[in-house]
Design brief:
101 residues, mainly alpha
């Protein structure tokens, strides 16, 4: 019974961590859309590096081989992929403003 409660506690913590990295990714998209490049890269780095470190932690504690942790791994990998694709392809880029000649 104690092992089950330990997993529930880890599940609650991981849900909060994933939501925090998702919020960081949303802020990355908003600042990217507004054209604030430095802040965009800060939040993109937080979401990418934080998700990668959390995946490494899950691997170290042996949660990769459990089916019950598949949702955590999938969420973190998808955040990493979304951040990297957005950073590489520079999407969303700042809006183009026409110049008056």
């Amino acid at each position: 019974m104690a092992k089950r409660n330990r997993y529930r506690h880890m599940e609650v913590i991981m849900t909060r961590v994933i939501l925090a990295f998702t919020l960081s990714f949303i802020l990355f998209l908003l600042f990217s859309w507004r054209g604030l490049t430095i802040v965009k890269y800060i939040f993109g780095g937080i979401a990418t590096i934080g998700s990668a470190l959390t995946l490494g932690w899950l691997y170290l504690i042996g949660e990769f081989k459990h089916r019950r942790s598949l949702w955590m791994i999938t969420a973190l990998v998808s955040l990493i992929v979304c951040c990297l694709v957005s950073l590489v392809f520079r999407w969303p880029c700042p809006p183009v403003t026409p110049t008056i000649a």
